[in-house]
């Protein structure tokens, strides 16, 4: 996990590919504010913990990094202190990929899912869930100002480059006689 600035090097934001939902939201502080690219607005939960943000994809999608923005200076007891990132096919088979203790941070928190033990590559998921387990100072509801999902940016081939075929089936056709 890194803190401070948003880490977008060699990554592409894929949040637009998902259908988003939250467990609860306070009137005037709904899900739309979580994705509006404005650090002055925030989603606020309204109910018992854990607070959930669900991101559902149409097809299996590789998610390399989850980044979210918290502002302890302004939000204090509304700031998450422990967050779990879960992934799976449906709500019934979610597995925890990472559990993070968040300090009194004001800035972006970037969680690299390639660092998940035993994986070595980003998980491919239909459903990703961010669960806010607890808040600082024993707070009940939570504020999250932004949430972004990233995948590895694929290199773009120029017109004179060849597609890097590696399977034997493709390689047998790569040279003309």
Automatic annotation (TrEMBL):
Residues 1-176 form the DOC domain. The keyword GTP-binding does not apply. GO terms for biological process: anaphase-promoting complex-dependent catabolic process; cell division; protein K11-linked ubiquitination. One of its GO terms (cellular component) is anaphase-promoting complex. Keywords: Cell cycle, Cell division, Mitosis, Ubl conjugation pathway. CDD domains: APC10. Component of the anaphase promoting complex/cyclosome (APC/C), a cell cycle-regulated E3 ubiquitin-protein ligase complex that controls progression through mitosis and the G1 phase of the cell cycle. Belongs to the APC10 family. This is Anaphase-promoting complex subunit 10. The lineage of its organism: Eukaryota, Fungi, Fungi incertae sedis, Mucoromycota, Mortierellomycotina.
